[in-house]
């Protein structure tokens, strides 16, 4: 899952869960059935799980473009300066 | 959200939080219901009225209890517990409560009832104060919800009196 896929998955999860909660509560209250509220919400949670938890292909539509390896060799990491040499000389 | 486990964990956490919120709202919605229950109790007969060997008065009554508690039931009501208590005053205690009968009402269909019964639990006083005693019969109830707050209230019925003599 790429970066934008992760963002999409999180937003989808939050919106779906809240939407199902609102629908479930409204239906349960209007029908006067607590069981109906729980059933609708449970169905919503299962559906949200199926949509957002597995790594579906549509979460991978923005792959990262890495540099080619030989391109990376042209820009080497800056070398670490030997820091401890000064301290040692100062002590001596 | 980079792995299967993270996404499952996030979904479970938010799912349970939202469920708790829904239950809290369901409990809150019970406050919008204003119940209007009614109850009548008749004392049909004093079966016997005695002083026991230990000095306590005990009386056996035949009661006719009828009540309509349907308006207590909302979508968030699991069951209603009702009990009928005799309440009276003695020189020693300002309030004595003796439970005479109780019942569990499982649904709205059973909430309108009439019952002809002797007292289910013994009506005995701690002492011998019951002769000629004026007492109240009080129907107490506890509305037990599926989630959230439990409600309790009562109806007091006055004007009952026990006989002056043992029989």
UniProtKB/TrEMBL annotation, chain A:
GO CC annotation terms, alphabetical: signal peptidase complex
For this protein, the parts annotated as crossing the membrane are 12-32, 38-59
Q: How does it sit in the membrane?
A: Multi-pass membrane protein
User: What is the superkingdom listed in this entry's lineage?
Assistant: Eukaryota
Using the UniProt annotation, give all residue ranges assigned to the region (Disordered): 69-92
Which keywords does this Swiss-Prot/TrEMBL entry list? Endoplasmic reticulum, Membrane, Transmembrane, Transmembrane helix
> Could you give a single Gene Ontology term from the biological process aspect?
signal peptide processing
Where does this one sit in the cell? Endoplasmic reticulum membrane
InterPro entries in the record: Spc1/SPCS1
Q: What does this protein do?
A: Component of the signal peptidase complex (SPC) which catalyzes the cleavage of N-terminal signal sequences from nascent proteins as they are translocated into the lumen of the endoplasmic reticulum. Dispensable for SPC enzymatic activity.
Q: PANTHER family from the xrefs?
A: MICROSOMAL SIGNAL PEPTIDASE 12 KDA SUBUNIT, SIGNAL PEPTIDASE COMPLEX SUBUNIT 1
Family per record: Belongs to the SPCS1 family.
The entry's protein name is Signal peptidase complex subunit 1
Organism of derivation: Fagus sylvatica (Beechnut)
UniProtKB/TrEMBL annotation, chain B:
Please state the span of the N-terminal signal peptide per the UniProt entry.
1-26
Q: Which family is this sequence assigned to?
A: Belongs to the SPCS3 family.
Kindly list the GO CC terms recorded for this protein. signal peptidase complex
Provide one Gene Ontology biological process annotation: protein targeting to ER
Q: What is its main location?
A: endoplasmic reticulum
Protein origin, superkingdom: Eukaryota
Name the UniProt record assigns to this protein? Signal peptidase complex subunit 3
Say what the protein does: Essential component of the signal peptidase complex (SPC) which catalyzes the cleavage of N-terminal signal sequences from nascent proteins as they are translocated into the lumen of the endoplasmic reticulum. Essential for the SPC catalytic activity, possibly by stabilizing and positioning the active center of the complex close to the lumenal surface.
- UniProt entry keywords in alphabetical sequence: Endoplasmic reticulum, Membrane, Signal, Signal-anchor, Transmembrane, Transmembrane helix
Pfam families (alphabetical): SPC22 (PF04573)
Q: How does this protein sit in the membrane?
A: Single-pass type II membrane protein
Q: Where in the cell is it found?
A: Endoplasmic reticulum membrane
**Source species, please?**
Fagus sylvatica (Beechnut)
